Amino acid sequence: MSIDGQPDHDTIPFDPGARDLGIVVGFDGSPNSTQALRYGAGIAARRGVQLTVITTYRAPVPVYGAYAAVPAQREDEANRRRAQTALDEAAVLLEGHRGEVSYMTAEGDSVGTLADASANAQLVVVGARGRGGFLGLVRGSVATTLPAHARCPTIVVPGEDQEEPAPTSAPVVVGMDESQRSRVAALHAAQVARERGTSLLVLMALPMPVSELSWYPELSPDAEGIAERRRQELQAVLEQDIAWIRAQVPAIEVAGEVRIGEPAVVLHDAIGESQLTVVGTRGRGAVRRVLLGSTSRAILHEAEGAVMIVPHLQDERLPS
Fold first, then answer.
1. Which ranges constitute the DSSP H helices of 197-317?
2. Strand arrangement, sheet containing 307-310
3. Shortest CA distance to 181 belongs to which of 52, 5, 8?
4. Most buried of 145, 173, 234, 236, CB within 10 angstroms?
5. Using the 8-state DSSP alphabet, how is residue 159 labeled?
6. Reduced to 3 states, what is the DSSP secondary structure of residue 308?
7. What confidence score (pLDDT) does residue 164 get?
8. Which tens digit of pLDDT belongs to each residue from 249-269?
9. Radius of gyration (Cα) for the chain, nearest Å?
């Protein structure tokens, strides 16, 4: 049962030790996917797990108007060779990697392939955009679609200069909203913070109250005063969640704050002070059946730093 009384039929079984693909990286040879590869390799090295590099290729249906139009080299074979070339490039980039590496090519759709692999992975890392066919344009199709279907956390690495960061004083930031889903996200954020030797900053957003009375200032309630009183109430609730996180992951420093504003705005404003921003796939929004909540979508589309999207995974540490 979820924290708000709704049954959670879509909770995903998650046993990290049984997921033998380890850290999965989607790679197509593009500069952004190269950064994703380095990012994922750093995580795999710290966790001491396998790094799995996957690239996909299309096998188009051959339709030729005449015999003379038949190419000397079949297009699917050429695509397969290009995929193998990409993996050869990845192997060169990983020559100094400490740990086991597995390389895979797969025929078909990139999102589907990586989503299937996520069922046997601890984490999937992709770049925000790649070479059109693999990672799409701007915020590519894989970067925006995969987190909604993945069965493990997904990290999206934006920008061609965004490498897996070395440990710094910047915290890992996670958004919470009193839901069990956000508690799952907080546990995974805490794990990352512990691995990087940094702190965890837990943020809860409190939107300003909206009322039709705002059209009549002389009748309007003290919206700012109401919001501040509610913020203080939620701060007390958040402190309980922080105490629970500290009990589950005692090796890290955890701080928390309730900030007034829309969740996506609050988290976006905090990106500059974090080395990774973590959100759940869905929160306490009214539309519970959407695959990816409005906050996580907004953060994915607008974030300038790395973002981790965590689905609703089973975890025995969650309070009942």
1. 223-248, 263-270, 294-302
2. 101-107, 51-57, 23-26, 123-127, 154-157, 307-310, 276-280, 172-175, 200-206, 254-260
3. 8
4. 173
5. S
6. strand
7. 52
8. 999 999 999 999 888 889 888
9. 22
